[in-house]
Each structure stands twice: as structure tokens, then as C-alpha cells.
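FW: tagging you since you asked about this chain on Friday. Here's the raw sequence from the shared folder, copied in full. Didn't touch anything.
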Amino acid sequence: MRHFVPALVAAAVIVASCSEGFRYTVSGSGPFFSRYEGDYVYLVTNHEWRVIDSAMVGNSSFHIEGECDSAEIVYAYLGKDMSSATNIGNPFILEEGDVRAVEKSEGWYGFTGTPSNDRLADIFAEFRSIADDRAKLDFLAGEISRHHDILGVSLLCDYYILSGGSSITAARLMEGFPEELRQTPSMLFLEQLVSRAKTDVDGKYMDIEGESVDGTVIDLASVVDRDGAMYVLLDFWATWCGACRESLPDLKSAYSEYKGKGFDVYAVSFDGDREQWSDFVHKNGLGWTNVIIDIPASGFRDVPEVAAYGVNGLPWNYLIDCSTGIIVGKNLYGEALFPRLSGLLGN
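HL: got it, structure written out here
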């Protein structure tokens, strides 16, 4: 599972916000890090996107050591500073003990070595082995119901929602957690997110409009209602989002294979530089409907239409059944998009 990229605020300083409490270490080594000597590995809290600790890469390795009052859900980022740092692994739990970064693929790490992280790794492995999307979500919901602790918070906030789980079900799952955990930053953020969402999987899509490359205003409804349209992917993205750019080859392949069978894409960009966005669309041959919307200084989550969809990061998408207007899929990327389209539209 690649992480969905938030609108990170650049951090020029190295911050450690944990005070006295339990001790932790996070470490990793290997040839991958040899290319980043002198850069930093940052531990960033999920949803707040606050740097709580960091260490310089040296001798093809990094070692972070500190103290915390309570367990935190964090991501590891790597770069010269936070303005250019890239996520290098799945979320993990910063808890007492020695957490080890284990390379899963080039530049992508899992984290093990402590009880919660070992259990999280086992759950994720079982999750990945399930083929059916609905069964995956049912499995996660069951695990969340069994873990009303920091592990369950991570499963709900960092896996269930990003894997296509409904905001309605997420709100129900949240009710089972004790009050002290519902007051954690991750859960408070999720509660705000789901309370603002007006639609999600199994609900009717909501219209949204933006300005195309040539300046024409195009709304989503006009694409959904086109003759021959069967399924439309509403795709939220930006050129500055690395994960968005990584997902484009698969999306282009899916569009090429299924556009003649009723598949279309309506892509909404969160770029601030319209010329850069327009150039990128042309140079990369993005032949579907592309629009850009105005984003306030406070961020894309404060755009009413975006908040109505519960968008929490980028990339983020919804698959709409044009015959009913119902959202039938969410956050379908790479290996998840092709089988869904194949099942709906045939090979």
C-alpha cells in the first residue's frame, strides 16, 4: 500500500516533540540508503503531519532514538528537508522497543520488532492475500472491532479509509473505541473528515466542476451523462504529488484498454500553478477530461465539494456507475483498478 500524499508543510528544522516516557528506537540499513548519505529520515505523525524526530543517514543506515509519553502512529519520510522528503513505507506505531525498517521493495519499507508493529504486519499480509475488495474491507472492519487500541486506530485511520472503506462504516467503527483513544489527533481528524463527508461508496455521486486546459468550465455530470458512458473515475490529483505521478501509467493503460467499452475519467487537479498543470497534461498525453479548481490558502480540504467527498490525501478517486449515479469503488489504483474494470466491463 503506497501512502497517499498530504499537502505537507515544509519543515526547515529538525523537531523532537516527545518528552519523558517510554524509550524507542527506529533503525534501518542497506544499499538503498547509501544514495542518501547526509539526508534525513523524519518520523511524521499521521494526519497532523508533524515531525516528531529525525536522524541523518550515514554509513548506509539511520538510527533514531528518543522518548515518548504515549504511542504515536507515524510515517517515515526521507529527504534533505521536509519540503522535498518522500514517504518510504507503510505507517507504523512508535512504541516502546526497537523498531526495524525491513525493505519490501526498492525504497519501500515495512516496520517490525515491537508487538503492535509485528501484529500490524501480520494483519497487512493477510489483508493483501484477500482477492475480493469487499472481503478485504470486511476483514479490516473485523480486525478494527477486535483492536480498540492504538493498533485499531491505525487500521481505521490509515488502512480502512484509504482502502476504500465507507465514511458511514468508519463512523460506526469509531464508536467502539474508548473515549481516550477517540480524543487522539488521528481519531479527531477522522471524525471531522467523516462528519463533513456527504457521499461515499454506495452513495450517489455529487457534482463538481472545474476549468479545462482551454478555459472551458466542465462539470462531472456532463461526463457521467455522456452517451455510451458506463463507468467514470473521479480522480483527485496534482502534478506535485509523487504518488499521483506514479499512478498515471496504470491509469493511462486502463483508459486505453477500456475507454471503448464505456470507461472514462474526470480528473480534478489541486495544482496552484495552472500553466505547469496544463503543460503536464499535454506532455504526458492525459487524454481524458482534465479540470483544475481554485484551492484556498487553508488547503484543498476546505473546498466544499472536496470536503463532501471526504478526500483526505492524494491521489484519491471514486468509481461511478453512470446508469445509477452510485459510487461503486474508491481509491482504485494499479493492480486494484484493472480487475474491477475487467469485472464490470469485460476483458
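FW: The radius of gyration is 20 Å.
HL: agreed, and The longest helix spans residues 242-258.
FW: great, closing this out.
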